[in-house]
Write a structure and sequence with these properties.
Belongs to the MIP/aquaporin (TC 1.A.8) family. TIP (TC 1.A.8.10) subfamily. Helix 5 packs antiparallel against helix 6. The protein starts with 16 loop residues before the first helix and ends in a 13-residue tail after the last helix. It is mainly α. The chain has a single domain, classed as Glycerol uptake facilitator protein (Up-down Bundle), CATH 1.20.1080.
């Protein structure tokens, strides 16, 4: 059964220097990603008098997030794997590719990275606050939730196919590009409807700094459900027993 591959790990893992170093890498990469992605939205708002919801603004956001995520994944890949997203970390956890305690360190680091990035943006732009994610006009909450589930499923499935699958071969070299591209494409598809978060950390930072929590639960529930489904599906159907589970006795 799939549940046998899920590893809790040991509490000592959360304070191990190796785990903390990986957490720092996730903090920095998430900060870089959110600063670039949310910063592009602020810049476009400033240049167009709050016109970020125009077609040009949507394209600009897609490109900025695609490029930013490509870099963020690349700079952390050799240290932490370059998750940059609690939904990715959760998807890898349910597939048995990361322990619970290490995953919690990653998620906390990602959330802190997003918060710090948004505070830095507010300071650097003399008071412009990163816009919080929100459900589009005439879009139901359930519609937005399903959209976030589907888009995050595609993202985490891409992570598994290009970065996690032991049979990926040379495909792994383009994993950051593929991951960035799927996020950019999803923003073009879902941006006007749910904001196309696909990442609880990306939504959490602006919500904290701007203290805007309307329908915020969607940006946790949708990505975690979508990421979890992708992790279970790919790991236990396409990788199956060929996968070598992460060691859990390193901290004995």
């Amino acid at each position: 059964m799939p549940i046998r591959n899920i590893a809790v790990g040991r509490f000592e893992e959360a304070t191990h220097p190796g785990t903390l170093k990986q957490g720092l890498a996730e903090f920095i990469s998430t900060l870089v990603f959110v600063f670039a992605g949310s910063g592009s939205g602020i810049a476009f708002n400033q240049l167009t008098s709050n016109g970020a919801t125009t077609p040009a603004g949507l394209v600009a956001a897609a490109i900025a997030h695609a490029f930013g995520l490509f870099v963020a994944v690349s700079i952390a890949a050799n240290i932490s794997g370059g998750h940059v997203n609690p939904a990715v970390t959760f998807g890898l956890f349910v597939g048995g590719n990361i322990t619970l305690f290490r995953g919690l360190v990653y998620i906390i680091a990602q959330l802190l990275g997003s918060i710090v990035a948004c505070f830095l943006l507010e300071f650097a732009t003399a008071g412009w606050v990163a816009p919080a994610f929100s459900v589009g006009a005439d879009v139901g909450v359930l519609n937005a939730l399903v959209l976030e589930i589907v888009m995050t499923f595609g993202l985490v499935y891409t992570v598994y196919a290009t970065a996690v699958d032991p049979k990926k071969g040379s495909l792994g070299t383009i994993a950051p590009i593929a991951i960035g591209f799927i996020v950019g494409a999803n923003i073009l598809a879902g941006g006007p409807f749910s904001g196309a978060s696909m990442n609880p950390a990306v939504a959490f930072g602006p919500a904290v700094v701007g203290w805007s929590w309307a329908n915020h639960w969607i940006y946790w529930a949708g990505p975690l459900v979508g990421g979890g489904i992708a992790g279970v599906l790919y790991e236990f159907i396409f990788i199956s027993h060929t996968h070598e589970q992460l060691p859990t006795t390193e901290y004995n």
